[in-house]
Amino acid sequence: MRILLILLFISNFTAAQYWGGQEIKASELTNWIPKFEIEYAGSYHFGESESESDFHLFFTEDGIIGQVQSGYWEEKTGLRKSNYLNITNIKIDKGGTFVSDQHTGQFIRYKTENGEFLNGLKINNPWTSWIEDSEFEIGTKTKLQFENIYYGKYGRASFKKLRKDELKKMSAEELKIMKNEIYARYGYIFIKDGKMDKYFRNQKWYRAEHKNVSSFLTKIELYNINLIKQLE
């Protein structure tokens, strides 16, 4: 089910506009500083329609993982395909300031007219290419759980560091599916009529889109793939 998502972005006229056309002032935004840093983890929705994107943010023992998921129209085929951008070296300070190699920003809150508080992430240099006249863009934190973002039987392999002891209890077939699910979630095109091709084409969530998804893989996915390969 599609959750109602809100777009906020600021113009050069010091007023921001969010989904629905209502304008707000930057001064109406306040910093969001939760009790625990882990509360920042989740999915943030930016934009709407063809310009929408989702920023998935989660914490591991090795650091913070962030990935932008968006879509584009392929020129040669006219097909709508997914694209993924990994945000590297993410750091969040006690005041909710967000920094990375590619983007900077601030975790914020906005109070709506009915008194409801929305939590979000303000990006100072938006990855949304069409926002030419905006100083920043804000994505609202959704209620989506990672289990509903990373499809398949073993979705945790994309957002949780796996352990050898748990993998040793799995069969060779289960390990193979777990490993290839990571690629399949990015729309990897398997060898036609091969075992994995037949398996994933029977999964409702799978879409064959890309011949190579290596650049999409996060550090945690690369770690899990290598770990599974050791045990296969």
TrEMBL record:
Domain called YARHG: residue spans? 150-232
Q: Which SMART domains match?
A: YARHG (SM01324)
Q: Which domain of life is it from?
A: Bacteria
What is this protein's name?
Answer: YARHG domain-containing protein
